[in-house]
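User: I'm writing a tutorial on reading structure tokens. Could you give me a worked example: one chain, its sequence, then its tokens, then a sentence or two explaining what the tokens reveal?
Assistant: Sure. Here is the example chain.
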Amino acid sequence: MNERRTDMRGRRQNGNALAEALMLRDRDTLRMVDEAVRHKQVMLAFQPVVQARRPDRMAFYEGLIRVLDETGRVIPAVDFIQPIEESETGRRIDCLALEKGLLTLACTPSLRLAINMSARSIGYRPWMRTLDRGLKADPTVGERLILEITENSAMLVPEIVIGFMSDLQKRGIAFALDDFGAGFTALRHFKQFQFDILKIDGQFIRNIHADPDNQVLTQAILAIAQQFDMFTVAENVENAEDVSALTAMGVDCLQGYFFGAPTVSPGWLDGRKARASA
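And here are its predicted structure tokens:
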């Protein structure tokens, strides 16, 4: 009995030590992220979104923010994105993503680009100042800018999101509902949102060619999108079989590693740099 108690006590101590180590690691990560954001040590990685029936043609790119540590390495978003979502750092990241996205659009007139934002950034004055400044510098970027809001984020303050979208859509900006199916959208709000693009969460897309349940669910999502006149994007497309299945189902656009991983050096950006140095 004494041996068993000693073993249990040792396990608790080991468990407490591990929990403390993880807490310290997370705290260090958040500190690094906060420091990096304050010094604007961020960049965008670009992932293509292609037309389903003409995958050689780009519909648009998604610009994904990357936060860098002091050595220039990317800090994995999974290590910090949830804890900072409700913080000032989260709002600053949204501002930096928008700032870099607007600059990229201004420098590349043929580009259409989606940038992520949280509904929590609505009403954050620095974010709106960043948008106004970018549109004033080049009014054409508004018609090529897509703002992506996740389903979970949109449902935090649906009435505010609806008004916010209505105001910015008048300025030519489009909106995408990201990760649809991952959250719990109330249909009474969905009728009022007026999103231009619906992005189907990857949990329904991976290996959809071999999953009858996800095929039925995706068909239902496509029917909703069609009813509300929204373009559809399937996320996390990773193999040719899924491409064929999704195209046959009528998805408008496809995004995933099958077509390209996020990269900080897309072909169009490399070409622009080459022309600038010529």
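What the tokens reveal: The chain has a mean pLDDT of 89. The radius of gyration is 21 Å.
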